[in-house]
Amino acid sequence: MLITSGCAVVVNILMAFILHQSPGSHGHSHDHNNTSVRAAFIHVLGDLLQSLGVLLAATIIYLWPKWKIADPICTFLFSILVLATTSTILKDIFRVLMEGTPPGIDYDSVKDSLLSVRGVKATHSLHIWALTMSQNQMSVHALIDEQTDPHSALKDMTKLLQTEFSFHNITIQIEAYSDEMAYCNECQDRSD
Questions:
Q1: Which long-range contacts (CB under 8 A, 24 or more apart) does 37-45 make?
Q2: In whole angstroms, what is the distance from residue 2 CA to residue 52 CA?
Q3: How many other CB atoms are there within 10 angstroms of residue 44's CB atom?
């Protein structure tokens, strides 16, 4: 058990080094992380922690043969560490699967940016979600006054959203603003 766990520690260290040097994860962060490489790296770190747990338990049992309880105790403790290391990747993956709002993008900031465009009077049906870990999507209905050219407003909003928030895909539906929209339930923004 001691030799096997020692070999496992060495192999897992080599694998972690290789994955850390791969193009998807090469020592510093990018906005376009490769989720598969990141998950594989975390998996190898988990295996390394488990191997260290087995090595620790094997050493204790080798030195003090009556302390066989060290094996399940180390397994339990190191399993908790592995669970902790995988929780961040699981959270990110579930955010994508559930089409949640991406981290670092504030709903109100996006809305305020849209309203800052000349001619945009209001917005509704604003939806922001993560398509992948590095590709964020959004859609919105933008209400413009009748003096504003819809093509110019669309161009300005698209450029602003790509520049400020780096959305991968933007869908904007232009609508003509009228005062009656203030009383329309479908034209109301979300309520907190």
A1: 38/89, 39/89, 39/93, 41/16, 42/85, 42/86, 42/88, 42/89, 43/86, 44/12, 44/15, 44/16, 44/19, 45/16, 45/85
A2: 10
A3: 20
Question: Which amino acid belongs to residue 39?
Answer: A
Q: Name which residue leads in pLDDT, 8 or 169.
A: 169
CB atoms near residue 176 (< 10 Å) = 12
pLDDT at 181 over 90: no
Angstrom distance (rounded) from CA 92 to CA 83:
15
Read off the pLDDT band of 114 (50, 70, 90): very high
Q: Would the pLDDT of 32 be above 70?
A: no
Report yes or no: 123 and 141 within 8 Å, Cβ to Cβ.
Answer: yes
Interior angle at CA 18, CA 14 and CA 23, nearest 5: 170
Q: Give the pLDDT score at 192.
A: 43
Residues 192, 189: Cα–Cα separation, whole Å: 10
CATH level 2 (architecture), domain 107-187:
2-Layer Sandwich (3.30)
Phi, psi values for residue 135, rounded to 5° = -125, 110
Domain borders along the chain are: 2-97, 107-187
* 120 phi/psi in degrees, rounded to 5: -85, 120
Q: Are 136 and 130 in contact (CB under 8 A)?
A: yes
